[in-house]
Amino acid sequence: MINFNIAAWHAWAPGLDSVADWQAWSQRPGVLAPSNAAPDVSFLPAMQRRRLSRLARMAFSVGWPLAEGHEALPLVFASRHGETPRTFDILSDLAADQPLSPTQFSLSVHNAVIGLWSIMRGETSEMTAIAAAGDGLEHGLIEACALLNEGAPAVLLIVTEEQPPDAYAHWIDDVPFAYAVGLLLTPGEQWQVSLASGGASTDKARWPHALNLLCHLFDEQTSFQHTWKNRVWNWQRSL
């Protein structure tokens, strides 16, 4: 079992930015219309913004306000699919015998976001990039809680997914729309998460675990479950 407090959170999706936006969505959750909208990252200098993909912009938009006031803040970044659109563009250039951009390649790797975060914030604390399965939220929590147990006063966890290119639609069916969720975690027992084994689930959850968590942040349930294949994550909280 892991224990932690959620000291603050921030989330973004096209058209959903404020707490009020997400509360309204949680009451009637639905798939958002396809959109190329990107979050506002005007807090960064223009030259730095140019290097950021939409995935990176989403991560920065939810993480930056949570990191304010923290001089040393470890970061755990979790994404199942990562920079899929950027990688697809690179593969398309290869197929067309076009020259490849070293910058595009260097920013397509899974830990590119935390590298950019470290540079732009001057942050030298421990950072981890996780490529997890459909329960990446919980795997990110395990990593973050390990850092809390080692003495970190707070850890930033960012979970984000980009809408994949249409060519991947047959294989990637767990991203209803682009989204990013940032959680500022601190030591405590407000939340407890434990893992149990069950039979392989054939029922596909309607929403990714991170979006389900946002829904539960607004309700009064003290316990709920997230299931991925044969892993059953039991969540409990003290109100």
Would you write up a description of this structure?
The chain has 239 residues and is of the alpha/beta class. The chain has one domain (2-237): Peroxisomal Thiolase, Chain A, domain 1 (3-Layer(aba) Sandwich), CATH 3.40.47. Helix content is 33%, strand content 24%. The chain has eight helices and seven strands; from the N terminus they run E-H-H-H-E-H-H-H-E-H-E-E-H-E-E. The protein has helices at residues 19-27, 46-49, 54-67, 84-95, 102-106, 112-121, 136-149, 209-218, and strands at 2-12, 75-78, 127-130, 155-161, 179-197, 223-228, 231-237. Strands 1, 2, 3, 4, 5, 6 and 7 form a seven-stranded mixed β-sheet that branches. The longest helix is centred in the N-terminal third of the chain and has 14 residues, at 54-67. The chain is globular. The model has no long low-confidence stretch (mean pLDDT 91).
